[in-house]
Amino acid sequence: MLSVRTAFLSDLHLGSRWCRAEELSAFLDLLECETLFLVGDIVDGWSLKRKFRWPDAHAEVLAKILDFAANCRVVYVTGNHDAFLDRLAGRKLGNIEIRLSAIHETARGIRMAVFHGDEVDRVSSEQPWLAHLGDLAYTAALWANRGANVLRRGLGLEYRSYSRMLKQKVKEAVNYVSGFEKKLAEEARRLGTDGVICGHIHKPAWEETRGEVFYGNCGDWVESCSALVEKHDGEMEVLDWETLKQTAGVPVVTQNGEMVYRFPLPEAASFWAGALLSMNVGPTDLRDVLETRR
Questions:
Q1: What is the 3-state secondary structure (H, E, C) of the chain?
Q2: CATH, range 2-244
Q3: Which of 44, 168, 241, 292 matches a 20 to 30 Å C-alpha distance to 139?
Q4: Rounded to two decimals, what is the model's pTM?
């Protein structure tokens, strides 16, 4: 079990064809936290409006989030793709708190403003039609990316996310023009916090010296498959699923119906390996597997 004090997830885009729901579901199976922040674009209202689709894998992710809400605090901060929930801000949806923004204080006493990030993105806030156009272009890029990687796989080449590179180049240009990062710092100072945690731009990060404030970005579960977490001692860390699954192991059901964990694990990561030692998985004891891999 990956035990942390606080976990921050954003840009899941449930309801979108491109949501990596299976990977997200596996990550949630490993996660244990005291507080879970959902930092916007959790449900993709834009995609659902164009064409409603809600696969079983997406329903499973939502069910697991509801399970978290029954056992820990869950705060849902809305974004631009799920702005239809803005009207519920300040209320609870079951056990889930709906907010437009929130303040989180780490175990080290660092106060962080938590919001999606579209609020300081001039394109999203002042030219929503252009944001919708950009969303359609990104969807087209994801389709092209899929085709290109089918060809690369046939040539024996590794996966490469051309759509992600394109999105980041566009975002960097837009952010330069709109002063996105400068506005983040201004917003942190306005709220009297030490920094900000957001999503929106699909680029995971944790930086302690950006514009004189702490800056965290959760990334997304469309391409980067990442999360921002606060450990129990207050240290912040960006996790990405591709790296994490190599360290933590991936739950797999065998043909005999047994749950086992596959461990590529070339070398154990001390923090996560230590957290996993407390697990009990039955016939093939995880403790023995980890000890022999050290």
A1: CEEEEEEEECCCCECCCCCCHHHHHHHHHHEEEEEEEEECCCECHHHHHHCCCCCHHHHHHHHHHHHHHHHCEEEEECCCCCHHHHHHCCCEECCEEEECCEEEECCCCCEEEECCCHHHCHHHHHCHHHHHHHHHHHHHHHHHHHHHHHHHHHCCCCCCCHHHHHHHHHHHHHHHHHCHHHHHHHHHHHHCCCEEEECCCCCCEEEEEECCEEEEECCCCCCCCEEEEECCCCCEEEEEHHHHHHHHCEEEECCCCCEEEECCCCCCCHHHHHHHCCCCCCCCCHHHHHHHHC
A2: 3.60.21
A3: 241
A4: 0.71
